[in-house]
UniProtKB/TrEMBL annotation:
Domain of life: Eukaryota
CDD domains the record matches: Topo_IB_C, Topoisomer_IB_N
Keyword terms: Coiled coil, DNA-binding, Isomerase, Topoisomerase
InterPro entries for the chain: DNA_brk_join_enz (IPR011010), DNA_topo_DNA_db_N_dom1 (IPR013034), DNA_topo_DNA_db_N_dom2 (IPR013030), TopoI (IPR001631), TopoI_C_dom (IPR025834), TopoI_cat_a-hlx-sub_euk (IPR014711), TopoI_cat_a/b-sub_euk (IPR014727), TopoI_cat_euk (IPR013500)
Name of the protein in its database record: DNA topoisomerase I
Amino acid sequence: MRHILRHWSSVLQRRPFFVLPLSPHRSLCRHASTTKPLRPIMSGPSEPMAVVAPSFSSDPASLAAHAPQVLSNGVNGRQEDSSSDEEMPLSQHTPKKINGANGKRIANPSSSNSSEDDRPLTKKPRVSTGLARKRIVESDSEQESSAGPSSPPAPPVKSATKPPSRSNGAIKPKSKARSPSDSELSSEDERPLAKKGSKAPKRSASPVKKPAAKPRKSYKESSGSEDEKPLAKTVATKGRKSNGSASARVKKEEESEDDAPLAKGKKRASAGADSSTARKDVKKKVKEESGKVKKEVKEEDDEEMYKWWEQGENDGSVKWTTLVHNGVLFPPPYVPLPKDVKMKYDGQSITLPPESEEVAGFFGAMLETDHVLDPVFKKNFFNDFKDMLKEFPPKENIRITSLEKCDFRPMYEHFEREREKKKAMTREEKKAIKEAKDKLEEPYLYALVDGRKEKLGNFRAEPPALFRGRGEHPKKGTLKKRLRPEDIILNIGKDVPIPKPNIPGNWKGVQHDNTVTWLAHWKENVNNQAKYVFLAASSSWKGQSDRSKFEKARELIKHVDKIRKDYTEDLKSKVMADRQRATALYFIDRLALRAGNEKGDDEAETYGCCSLLFEHVTLSPPNTIIFDFLGKDSMRFHQEVDVDIQVFKNIKIFKAEPKKKGDDIFDRLTTSGLNAYLNTQMKGLTAKVFRTYNASWTFQQQLKTTPKNGTVQEKIAAYNTANREVAILCNHQKTVSKNFEQSFAKMGDKVRALKYQRMKLRYQLFTLEPKMKKKRADLAESESDMDDEFMERHEEELREKAVEAAKKKFEKENTKLVAEKEKAQPKSVLDERLKEIKAEFKELAKERKTKKVEPKKGATVEKLEEQIQKMEARIAAARVQMEDRDKTKDVALGTSKINYIDPRLTVAWARKYDVPLEKLFSKTLREKFPWAEAEADADWVF
DNA sequence: AGCGTTACTTAGTATTATTACC
DNA sequence: GGTAATAATACTAAGTAACGCT
């Protein structure tokens, strides 16, 4: 539930603000600086508008026909190749950052006032960068030294600081606002609807317009259709029969398999007949092979990979027939601190039993983090600590009642020392430790699924810790307790040995449900949420579901035009529920918003589309909407977008009296209602599919700008640019690294050093041939950022380096001479050299003033011009790199690469442009997407 | 219908490994 | 060869959406 009162505004301040233009036509984009044309989907490297359509066929022509993002108007900016975009200078697209830093995750709402910035945040403030959509950052201090062609600062968004709350003293019930029923609307549009859920008068009375009449299935109903669950159950595992052949197995596993009557495994499979046959086959094969396999066991690896993607469709709810694994690995028991390490209370050292000492240590280890400054964190921690102390009090018979009197510093210092010690260990020691650890983990690394060896993801029981919720989580700081076997339920093959926990105790339960993919499961005590042990991302289970996710997104291509047409019409529906649904869908499609399920009271207050509140959306006539809210992980979504005028009008209605701050915008909409509707448009369609679809589609369009004849590096840069556009679309952010500023400045100096060299070359050229000043007027201008101060400093640095080098060289020479039994050079030789250096730099200083540089020996006009040209190229390259670095500093590319971009796009692109795949996918990603490599050739299209 | 539960995907950050740099 | 910068991986929180009970 959400509270009516929340301090939203205050909370919002720190995220970067993107301006995202929604309008389809470029021409609409009048405020280039602040608002852009709508195109979440595609902004080109040159941003905007290249709205291109998704296509279901590989035919390029048809590609053009489906515009993902396109709006209602028929003509939208879709273009097959965004020629127009390309014409745009990059700089224009570069986001302008309005201002400097903002923290990424909103820290503390309560503190939210203007001075927020001063507070220590958990994270460093991030500097916004602009991307395709420009992000406007709340203004704070710094003026970003952004490299790129600087864009003019965008005008501050008015709502940026604080979302306007327009409610005036309307009489509101304390709970959610309700809106008048449709029938009360004077004109259909003018009033807000009633609250979703019960209280509002249902729209029954209202005249139903055509779309409304559409029977919408509830999701339950729809589930009856083949797709949903039933289907899965009916179908048996087709593709599975061949698996048994899989390969070498580990001996232990084999034995267990042999012992286990596999045939029994089946119980609940409603799949009955089929699956049991399949199962028998498996068993048979296993038996047949077991003999020879055993012999091969030693070499263990190299089993050939199970190519599930070559096995035909796999549907179903039966996920396995045999499943063998070793359960979870518990962390080692707590080791008490040395006797001399004690926390203090009120100045006095106290001795804690291990149980409470461990908890104290969790907090002690965080002493240098911002958590210890957080009131909620402290309160939750201290409550749990006190509870622990009740049972395990200090030996001194002291009652601990105040956190402020606790001094954990001695513990902290101990941990620091331990860390140092560890760091100081020799390579061998470290290796030995690692080996011991690997050995311990070895049995847990793999499971045997239908006879195949499959890697596990997380096989470790989560160690105890203080819960670190993200954003303003009410439970942060709470003790997450140590797990025991009694907390854990295993899911494992029916007639297979039950593993023994690596610490004393017995499993809470053991089940044999072959319709699910988890191997172990427990309830975590902080939020009472389930945690699971699953197979790794590289496993066939994950691979199959990943692939079907992308296939579903590709299927959407076929339906999206119709869906867009429908929701565009429904934007004007007389039925408010439909109108809200259409409006929400518009946002989900164009802005890649998440669905926005309802959340509980004891969670951080974050939002998605369906749960947006009054204060999250601000209207700015004529058709601009400003979003400002915290999404998943409390990441701020702050964008300004030009929208279809009807959308603008709708939001105005949805926000009209009597709604006020704290009320839902879409009071008649729920995620399940929305998804039920989507399911009628396309089987299996849900809100999240739009994110996948738009991300992959955008990526595909963006890749079209790859330079065919560029270097590999240039091509990769184009790839990364495309990746970045997708990340921006999805609002994937990361904290700006704490050294960013420093390393960025360093890069800037490098560029200037290059410019300095170029300057010297220019002066030589002009000194050699004064006429060139006219002829090459382009070279006559001086470097804009090459001031005396820099040059002086730079020359000084060069000089110091030269001196160092000379000294080293001298020593080296002498060492060598001595080694060869010859006489070392006298120090005077060195002095002489140093003198020369000194003279040289003196000359440089003089040149700096006179701007005349004596040409080097053998210099000619041609040679100098060539050198200058080379230097320019180096400068340009360095600048591009800098710009890129700046633009990417707070954008996380990995998330979209892992979850949203169809890997076949990458594979196809790599093949088409002849770029080694390993430059694009890390080892784990390649292991995750073997199916993509198998099926995508250079011409593959999404 | 409403709401808690279950299963699984998506997400940012902390930690560790690798590479770049001196 | 040691250290700093960067990339990869590990970790676990936080979403989505279906399920299932009343």
